[in-house]
Amino acid sequence: MWGRAVIDTRSDAELVAAARSGSDAAFSRLVERHQAALRGFLRPLMGGGWAEADDLAQEALVIAWQRLSELKRAEGFRTWLMGIAWRKAFSRIRSTRRGSARDLAWLEGQGVPAGVQPEDALSLDRALSGLSPPERACVLLCLAQDWSHAEAATALNLPLGTVKSHVSRGRARLLSVLGGAHDAG
Amino acid sequence: MTPDDTLKAFLAAGTPGPRDATFELAVAERVARRRFWMSQLALLPWVLVACLLTVFALPVLRVMGPALAPLAEQVGMIGGVAALTLVTAGLLVRRFRPS
Fold it and tell me: Where does the chain cross the membrane (chain B) (predicted)?
C-alpha cells in the first residue's frame, strides 16, 4: 500500500464523503483513526474478555459502513459511531443479563495497568462493575476518553443533566474505593 | 500518584495502540462479506422477475418449441457470451474504480 507511509490529513467529514461515494480506502482511514477509542470504550464497558468487545467494535464499524448515508453531520462521525457501538453493547449486556454481575475476566485478561496497585485495580474493577451500564458508559467516555458531557450525551442519547450526574456519581464511587472520596465532586 | 491519576490509568488500560493492522483487516473482511450479501439481496427481485417471466413464457415456448429448436444453440451461445462479458466488465469496473 503506497498510501500507508503518508499521513492522511483529510478530516472525518472529507473521509465520510469519500467513503459514501464508494471509497474503501477512505473508510479504512476512518477505521484506523477511531478503532483505538472505540475498543478502549467497549472493553471495560463489556467486561468478560476483550475478544467479545473487539467483535462488537467490528460489528459497529460494519453497521457504520452500511448506514453511512444516514449520517446527517459527517463531521460528527466519531460521536455517531460511538452511539452505534453503545446501543449494540447495551443491548448485548441486557440480553446476557450481565450488568452489575460482570465477571472479573476483563481484569484478569488485561493484567494490572502500570502505576496501579493490584488491590486498587481489583477494587476499581469491582466498583466499575457495580455501576449501571449507562453510568459506566458516561464515566468511560468523559473520564477515560476526555469527551465533553455534551458529546457523550449525543452519543449515548441521554439528557445532558443525566450524563453530568452519571459522571459525577460514577467518579465519586470509583474514587471512594481508592480512599479519594473527598476529591470527588 | 493521585487517586485521579490512578483512576485515569485504570480506565485507559483497555485502550489498544493507535494502529492495529489485524483489527483493521478483520473489519475490511467483514465489510467485504456484508457487501457481498447485500449485492446478492439486491439481485433477488430480478431473480423473481426472471422466474415469473419464465413461468409466463413456458406455455408459449411449448407451442413454439419445435420451430425454435434449430435456433437454440446459437441463442444459447450468444447469451452465454453476453453474460460472460457483463460479468467480466462488472469485475473490471469494481477492481479499477478509483478510490
Answer: 43-63, 75-93
B3 in any annotated domain: no
Contacts 24+ apart (CB under 8 A), B28-35: B28/A24, B28/A28, B28/A31, B30/A58, B30/A59, B30/A61, B30/A62, B31/A24, B31/A27, B31/A61, B31/A62, B31/A65, B34/A62, B34/A65, B34/A66
Residue B71 is classified by DSSP as: G
The string of pLDDT tens digits covering residues A79-132 is: 999 999 999 999 998 887 654 445 555 555 556 677 778 888 888 888 998 899
| Residues of B at the A interface, defined by Cβ within 8 angstroms | 1-20, 23-24, 26-28, 30-31, 34, 38, 97, 99
CATH classification code of A9-183: 1.20.140.160
Residues of B in contact with A137 (CB under 8 A): none
Is residue B88 in a domain? yes
B98: left (phi over 0), alpha (psi -120 to 50) or beta: beta
Q: How many helices (H) and strands (E) does chain A have?
A: 9, 0
Q: Is residue B78 part of a domain?
A: yes
pTM: 0.75
Predicted complex ipTM: 0.79
Q: Which residue of A has its CA nearest to B19?
A: A32
**Residue A49 region by backbone torsions, left for phi larger than 0, else alpha for psi between -120 and 50, else beta:** left
Q: Which residues contact A34 (CB under 8 A, 6 or more apart)?
A: A77, A78, A81
Cβ-nearest to A179 among B3, B9, B34: B3
Residue of chain A minimizing CA distance to B31: A62
**Cα B39–chain centre separation:** 4
